[in-house]
Amino acid sequence: MLETAEAYWPHILFIVSVVAGAAAAIHAAMTKEEVRSAVGWVGVIVLSPIIGAVLYLIAGINRIRRNVISDRRALLQGRIRADFASYDATDDLVIRQFGNRFRSMKTLGDRVTNHHLTTGNTIVALDSGDEAYGAMLEAIEAAERSIILETYIFDRDRIGTRFAQALIAAVQRGVEVRVLIDAVGARYSVPSVLGMLRDGGVTIDVFNGNVIMGLRLPYANLRTHRKIMVVDGRLAFTGGMNIREGFTKEFSGNKCSFDTHFRVSGPVVADLVAIAAADWQFANGETLEGDAWALQTPETQPGMPVIMRAVSSGPDRSVETNHKMLMGAFSVARSSIRIVSPYFLPDRELITALVTAARRGVTVDIVVPTSNNLVLVDRAMTAQFDQMLKNYCRIWRASGPFNHSKLLVIDGRWAFVGSSNLDPRSLRLNFEVDLEVLDCAFAEALERRIDLAISSATEVTLEGLRARPFLVRLVERVLWLGSPYL
Predict the structure, then answer these.
(1) Strand ranges (DSSP E) for 293-431?
(2) CA distance 449 to 264
(3) SS3 label, residue 340
(4) What are phi and psi of 366, to 5 degrees?
(5) Which pTM was predicted?
(6) What pLDDT is recorded for position 105?
(7) Are 299 and 194 within one domain?
(8) Three-class SS of residue 350?
(9) How many domains does the chain have?
């Protein structure tokens, strides 16, 4: 057998390359919904069948097939909760308070998400790591029944250790605790916090991979970028903030990075529990049920502010949900679109939607950091700025330390906040969670934050971009070509 293989290895290699290349090319052509993506992958596979097929296996397959818990009112209950159904926002309510165009956003969300737009919610912005981590730790210490925590990065630094100790203490007093960390994000800290949590009795798992044995193929490129913590089925924290001491002045001083996290309560919490519980079930196989995980009826009354919806996106049945919501929001804007994003790399469809809004008179302001933690991404997104600037959009480079916040406000009424960046990874590869918020007071508060950032920012101009050396601009364009993989 060995002698035959040695004699005919070129023929065997040829057959393997043809079979592997054909299978990968057929899969790409049949599953990719974007023609540019399909053509690109088929081209790579045809030009280099074996290497191309391996690359496609690692980075090209971006659809996880799993059972999704679609109705949060049935989660952990075994029946539909009538008390939660009474909080669902009606078309008439949205029209009465915000007009017909935002009723169309409700219809869009109803059709592309797994969650309802609900009334009776509260949301509080937490401006810094010091404020957000303090509130989260306080909630952990007060937990009586259950805690579920899902995050992309959970470092084993001084802040991470503080969280780990609080979670271990919760387990010791009888609280059910589940912690889910992304397999890639768990590698940001060496040694990982996983061992510390596990030794302390916390039930933990990693999402879509094994930290020791290597990432699970063919989904190694797909990550949970969600940040969700729910305590006792009644109080939740979500937004863009990972668990890292670099976001606190306590440990990093004036050099700390900034982010915005949110504390929420009301019926939307049930959606956040459903999203995190589905991810936990996918990673661990355990279905969270029983009294410890029972949802609590909101203390507010149906019909009260704030109107909210949890929007889960990811390479499963909810693929590009965040992209669809953004396209809808840009299309209904009449006066202003305000965006804060650390990584601004929208695809052609989103760019077209933004510049079309700007051309019909909508003020479009985009705020990105001057100081960015991902230099390659920053260079790639700079290469796209001219497409926006020559079509009446304004771009601002915010001064000060790196800001990781993701904020979007339409017309001072509709807001979209959470974990999604405006880049290919968040829009097509990552599992993300965002909040759709219909509330004038909340939207106006976000706009004040954006105005404050713009007041000390430097405006990006076409003249300034074009005045830079040709070699710099060429490098940026080359990096931009690889932006779908950054």
Answers:
(1) 307-313, 336-340, 363-369, 394-398, 407-410, 414-418
(2) 19
(3) strand
(4) -125, 120
(5) 0.87
(6) 97
(7) yes
(8) helix
(9) 3
Contacts of 274 (CB under 8 A, 6+ apart): 69, 71, 72, 75, 114, 115
Asked whether residue 76 is domain-assigned, the answer is: no
Q: Please give the structure tokens belonging to residue 340.
A: 């804060």
Helix (H, G, I), strand (E, B) or coil at 486: coil
pLDDT tens digits, one per residue of 160-179: 999 999 999 999 999 999 99
Q: Which of 250, 270, 305 is the last residue of a domain?
A: 305
| Residue partners of 337: CB distance under 8 A and separation at least 6 | 329, 330, 354, 357, 362, 363, 364, 365, 408, 409, 410
In a domain, 69, yes or no: no
Asked if 125 and 269 sit in the same domain, the reply is yes
Is 25 within the bounds of a domain? yes
Burial of 157 (0-12, 13-18, 19+ CB in 10 A): middle
Positive or negative, the Cα torsion across 320, 326, 329, 331? negative
- Tally Cβ neighbours within 10 Å of residue 319: 18
Range 40-49, long-range pairs (CB < 8 A, 24+ positions): 45/21, 46/21, 49/17, 49/18, 49/20, 49/21, 49/24
The rounded distance, in Å, linking the Cα atoms of 129 and 155 is 14
Per the DSSP assignment, residues forming a β-bridge with 436 are 309, 416
The verdict on 134 and 10 lying in the same domain is no
Residues 160 and 238 in one domain: yes
Residues of the chain with pLDDT under 70: 1-9, 11-13, 32-37, 41, 58-82, 210-221, 484-486
Total residue length of the chain: 486
pLDDT at 70: 44
Residue 370 in tokens? 């001057």
Domain that holds residue 29: 2-60
* 17 within domain boundaries: yes
> Can you tell me which residue has the tokens 């899902």?
150
For residues 264 and 416, what is the distance between their CA atoms, to the nearest angstrom? 14
Two tokens at 168?
């271990």
- Same structural domain, 292 and 339: no
pLDDT tens sequence across 91-112: 999 999 999 999 999 999 999 9
